[in-house]
Amino acid sequence: MTLHDIKQISIREYLHTIGIYPVNNRDYYGMYHCPYRYDQHASFKVDYRQNIWHDFGTGDGGSIIDLVMKINRCLLNEALTELNQYISTTGRQMQDVFDRETVKIPTITIQNIIPITHPKLTAWVR
Question: How far apart are CA 65 and CA 83, in angstroms?
Answer without folding.
Answer: 8
